[in-house]
Design brief:
The complex is a heterodimer.
Chain A: H1 2-22, E1 59-66, H2 73-92, E2 96-98, E3 101-111, H3 116-129, E4 134-137, H4 141-154, E5 157-160, E6 178-180, H5 185-196, E7 203-209, H6 212-228, E8 233-240, H7 248-257, E9 261-264, H8 270-280, E10 287-289, H9 295-306, E11 310-313, H10 322-331, H11 348-367, H12 372-379, E12 383-385, E13 391-394, E14 401-402, E15 405-409, E16 426-429, H13 431-434
Parallel strand pairs in A: 1-3, 1-4, 4-5, 5-6, 7-8, 7-9, 9-10, 10-11
Antiparallel strand pairs in A: 2-3, 11-15, 12-13, 13-14, 15-16
Chain B: H1 3-35, H2 43-61, H3 64-92, H4 97-119, E1 135-138, E2 141-144, H5 145-167, H6 169-179, H7 181-186, H8 191-213, H9 223-238, H10 243-263, H11 268-282
Antiparallel strand pairs in B: 1-2
Helix pairs in contact in B: 1-5, 1-8, 1-9, 1-10, 2-3, 2-4, 2-8, 2-9, 3-4, 3-8, 5-6, 5-8, 6-8, 9-10, 9-11, 10-11
Classes of the chains: A alpha/beta, B mainly alpha.
C-alpha cells in the first residue's frame, strides 16, 4: 500500500514538474487548459520591431506575406510589429522544442505589394529559396487564395490571419495546409446583428467598398439582421469605389434616408474619410464597423465625433489584460515607424495577429516538429485559450476557428486615449450565434 | 424648402465643390499637359506631396494658412527642378512623349517611396482650420463652410491665372511661347525659362489643390493616384490647353459624380470615363480644345 502511495505521489510530482517546464513555452502549464499565458511572456524590455534581428543557427522560419511596399505598406508594418513581438517573446524564452531541441523563431519578409503576381513570386521565393516552415499572411482574400494554392503545392503550413472571406476554406479552395484564424464575414454580420438585437436602432444604411469583400459583408449583415432583428430596416445600400474621395453625395443620401446607424466594412483610408466627412457635414450618426479603430482617424474627429461608434472584432483586449501592459510598456521606447498611437496599445488587429502566431507555435511545439503534416494532426480540432482567456477551437473539418466575438461602443472619456472616444464595456456574442456553419460541400465535414 | 429639394440642392453644391477641387488639380495639368504638351504623369504625386508638406508645416507652425502658402511653393520649386534638370534632357533625347511619360512616371514612383520614408506609411490627418470649421445655412440647408471655401479658393486661383495669362505681357509671352517657341525665341525671349516657370506654376496649382484637399481626406501615399487620373479626364474632356474648357468639364464631371451617386449609384464610378469616351469619339480635341 505504501509503495502504491509513493508511486502515485511521484507520478503527481512528475506531472507538476513537467507542467512547469512546458510553461516556459507559449502554452500554459500542464493541468491548466492549453493556451496563452500572459504571465509567461518574457521581459520585453528593449524590444523594438524596427530593430528586430533574426536569430542564427537552426531556427523555425516563418515567411511573412504582407504588403511591405505600395499603398498598403502600413498593413505590412502591422504584420511586422506583431510578428517580431511574438518571435522575440518566444526567442527570449529560449524558443520552442521541435525535433528534440530548442529552436528560435526567424521571420522572413515576403512583399506581396498588395498584388497577385507579386504575391505568387513572394511565396515561391519563401518556399523554394528561403525554405520557410510556415507562410503567414495576409490581407486580401484574392491574395490569400493564391497563397493557399501555393501552400498546397509546396506542402507548407499556411496561417491566414488577414482575410475574412467565407469561401476561402470551402469546396475546391480548401487545403489541409491552411488554417484560417481570422473570423469570417458571416461572423461579422451575425455579431453586429446580434448586438443590435439588444439596442434601439432599427434603420440601417449599408455603405461599403465596391468589391467582393464589401458585397459579402453587406449580405452577411442583412442575413444577420433577418435572423436576429427581424423588424430592422435597410433604408439604403451603396457601394463606393475603393479609395473614394468624396463621400458627401453618399452621406446626403444617408441623411435623407432617416437612417439611425451606418453599417460599413470600409477599411482605411475610406473608413477614416467617411467618418471625417460625415462629421464635417454635421451628420453625427453612429457608425458600426470592424475597421473603425484607426486611431489617427478617430483623433481627427475628436472625442465628440468618435463617441457612439460601434466596433466589432473577433478579439478585444481589455485595458487590464496582462499582455496589454507588457506591450504598452515596451512600446514607449519604440523608434519610428512604430512610435505612433497606432501601436500604443495591443489592438484588435495586432492582438489577433499575435494570438494566431502564439497558437501556431504552441501547436508546433506540441507536435514536436515543424513538419506540416505533424502540425496539422495536432492543430485540427485543437482547443486553446486565447489572449483574453477565451476558448478557441480549430474546427477540424474546415480549419476555421469557433469562437465568441466581441462588440464595444466607443465612449469618451476612456482609459485609452484622451483625444478620441474609444472602447469601454465589451459585449460578448457567444460562438453559437456567430459561427459559420460547416461547409456542406465537403466530405471532411460530414 | 422641402427635404427632397434640400437633398438635391446639397448634391448640387457637393458637385460644385468637388468639381472646383478637380479644376484646381486639372488647371495645373492644363498648363503643363494641355498648353505645353508635356505628358506629366507626376502631377498627382505633386498633389500628394503637397498634402504631406501641409502636415509638416501645420505641425511646425500650427497654421493652416502658412501651410497653404508654403507647401505649394515647395512643390512648385520641385516642379521647376524636375523641368530644368530632367524633363529638358528627356525632351532633348528626341523620344518625344514616351521619354516624358517614362520620366514623370519615374518621378511619381520616387515621390511615393520618398513620402513613405519621410512620413511613414500610416494615414495622416489634417483638421479643418478653426476659422472654416462648422456649417453655414444656405436657404435652410446646413452646409460645411470648408467645402464652400474650396469653391472660393478655386475661383480665386482661376481669376489670378486668367489675369496673368490673358491680361499681362507675361501671359502673352507664355501663350506665344507654348504656341510657337521658335518664333518667340527669335524675338529674344528665353523660352526655356518661360517653360520652366510655367511648369512650376502648374506644379504650384497641384500643390494648392493638395493643401485644399488635405482637411477632407486622409493623407496617404496613394492620395494622388485617383485624383491625378480624374484630372487627366478633365483636361481631355475640356480640351487641350483650354482653361475655360477645364473649368466647365470639371464642374460638369463634379455634378455627374454627385447626381450619379444620387440616381444611378452602381454606374457612378464609370460615368466620368464614359463621358470622356463619348467626347473623344465625337470631338477628339475635347469640348473647347485649342490644339491637337
Amino acid at each position: 500500500m505504501r509503495v502504491l502511495q509513493r508511486t502515485i505521489w511521484w507520478g503527481v510530482a512528475a506531472t507538476v514538474l513537467l507542467g512547469v517546464t512546458l510553461g516556459t513555452g507559449p502554452a500554459q502549464a500542464a493541468g491548466a487548459a492549453r493556451g496563452f499565458n500572459a504571465s509567461a511572456v518574457a521581459d520585453m524590455t528593449g524590444f523594438d520591431p524596427a530593430k528586430f534581428e533574426n536569430p542564427s543557427g537552426d531556427v523555425v522560419k516563418i515567411g511573412v506575406l504582407a504588403p511591405f511596399s505600395g499603398d498598403a505598406a502600413s498593413v505590412g508594418q502591422i504584420y511586422w510589429a506583431t510578428g517580431t513581438w511574438v518571435a522575440s517573446d518566444i526567442n527570449r524564452r529560449g524558443g520552442i522544442t521541435v525535433d528534440g531541441k530548442k529552436k528560435k523563431i526567424a521571420l522572413i519578409k515576403g512583399d506581396t505589394m498588395g498584388k497577385p503576381a507579386n504575391t505568387k513570386q513572394a511565396v515561391e521565393k519563401l518556399c523554394l529559396q528561403d525554405k520557410v516552415d510556415v507562410l503567414w499572411g495576409t490581407a486580401g482574400s484574392h491574395l490569400t487564395a493564391i497563397i493557399q494554392a501555393e501552400a498546397d503545392k509546396y506542402k507548407k503550413l499556411h496561417l491566414n490571419s488577414g482575410s475574412l472571406s467565407d469561401t476561402l476554406m470551402e469546396g475546391k479552395a480548401f487545403t489541409p495546409y491552411t488554417f484560417q484564424h481570422i473570423w469570417t464575414t458571416h461572423s461579422v454580420g451575425a455579431t453586429l446583428a446580434k448586438f443590435f438585437a439588444t439596442r434601439q436602432e432599427r434603420k440601417f444604411y449599408i455603405l461599403n467598398q465596391d468589391y467582393v469583400f464589401g458585397h459579402e459583408l453587406a449580405e452577411s449583415f442583412k442575413a444577420g439582421l433577418k435572423k436576429y432583428v427581424p423588424d430592422a430596416q435597410i433604408v439604403g445600400e451603396d457601394f463606393h469605389p475603393l479609395f473614394n474621395k468624396d463621400f458627401a453625395p453618399y452621406l446626403t443620401k444617408v441623411k435623407a434616408s432617416g437612417a439611425e446607424m451606418i453599417f460599413t466594412g470600409d477599411w482605411i483610408p475610406d473608413s477614416s474619410n467617411l467618418l471625417k466627412q460625415s462629421r464635417q457635414m454635421g451628420i453625427n450618426l453612429p457608425v458600426a464597423g470592424i475597421f473603425l479603430d484607426d486611431i489617427n482617424g478617430l483623433i481627427a474627429v475628436g472625442p465628440e465625433g468618435s463617441k457612439g461608434l460601434v466596433f466589432a472584432s473577433e478579439l478585444l483586449i481589455n485595458f487590464q489584460d496582462g499582455i496589454q501592459h507588457k506591450w504598452h510598456e515596451a512600446w514607449k521606447t519604440w523608434a519610428a515607424p512604430y512610435n505612433t498611437p497606432l501601436y500604443e496599445w495591443l489592438g484588435s488587429t495586432t492582438g489577433a495577429y499575435a494570438e494566431s502566431l502564439y497558437w501556431l507555435l504552441d501547436a508546433m511545439e506540441r507536435a514536436g516538429s515543424a513538419d506540416a503534416e505533424k502540425v496539422i494532426k495536432v492543430w485540427e480540432g485543437d482547443e486553446w485559450t486565447g489572449l483574453i482567456g477565451q476558448k478557441l477551437t480549430m474546427r477540424a473539418c474546415d480549419h476555421r476557428v469557433v469562437r465568441d466575438t466581441y462588440v464595444t461602443e466607443f465612449v469618451s472619456p476612456n482609459k485609452w486615449y484622451k483625444d478620441c472616444a474609444f472602447m469601454d464595456k465589451i459585449t460578448t456574442i457567444p460562438a453559437e450565434f456567430v459561427t459559420l456553419p460547416q461547409p456542406k460541400d465537403s466530405s471532411r465535414c460530414k | 424648402m422641402s427635404p427632397e429639394t434640400q437633398m438635391y440642392l446639397a448634391q448640387g453644391i457637393h458637385g460644385l465643390a468637388y468639381g472646383m477641387l478637380l479644376f484646381l488639380v486639372a488647371s495645373g495639368l492644363t498648363l503643363i499637359f494641355g498648353m505645353m504638351g508635356i505628358l506629366n504623369i507626376a502631377h498627382g504625386a505633386f498633389f500628394m506631396l503637397s498634402a504631406y508638406l501641409c502636415v509638416t508645416v501645420l505641425g511646425a507652425t500650427g497654421s493652416y494658412w502658412l501651410s497653404l502658402l508654403i507647401a505649394p511653393l515647395g512643390v512648385a520649386l520641385l516642379g521647376i527642378l524636375v523641368e530644368r534638370f530632367m524633363l529638358r534632357r528627356a525632351q532633348a533625347s528626341g523620344m518625344g512623349h514616351i521619354a516624358e511619360l517614362l520620366l514623370t512616371l519615374g518621378v511619381s514612383l520616387v515621390l511615393a517611396e520618398a513620402v513613405k520614408l519621410t512620413w511613414g506609411t500610416e494615414g495622416l490627418q489634417v483638421n479643418v482650420p478653426s476659422a472654416l470649421a462648422g456649417l453655414v445655412n444656405i436657404a435652410g440647408l446646413e452646409y460645411p463652410i470648408y467645402r464652400l471655401f474650396i469653391i472660393v479658393l478655386s475661383l480665386v486661383v482661376l481669376a489670378l491665372l486668367s489675369l496673368v495669362l490673358f491680361k499681362t505681357r507675361l501671359g502673352t509671352i507664355v501663350r506665344a511661347a507654348v504656341s510657337d517657341p521658335g518664333m518667340v525665341s527669335a524675338l529674344g525671349v528665353n523660352t526655356q525659362i518661360v517653360f520652366m516657370l510655367v511648369f512650376g506654376l502648374g506644379s504650384w496649382m497641384a500643390g494648392v489643390a493638395g493643401v485644399a484637399a488635405a482637411p477632407i481626406l486622409t493623407v496617404f501615399p496613394g492620395l494622388g493616384d485617383q485624383i491625378g487620373m480624374d484630372a487627366f479626364v478633365v483636361v481631355v474632356v475640356g480640351g487641350f490647353g483650354s482653361l475655360f474648357g477645364a473649368l466647365l468639364a470639371a464642374l460638369f464631371l463634379g455634378e455627374l459624380n454627385a447626381f450619379g451617386i444620387q440616381f444611378i449609384p452602381k454606374l457612378s464610378p464609370v460615368l466620368m470615363f464614359s463621358f470622356m469616351a463619348l467626347v473623344l469619339a465625337f470631338k477628339p480635341t475635347g469640348l473647347f480644345g485649342e490644339r491637337e
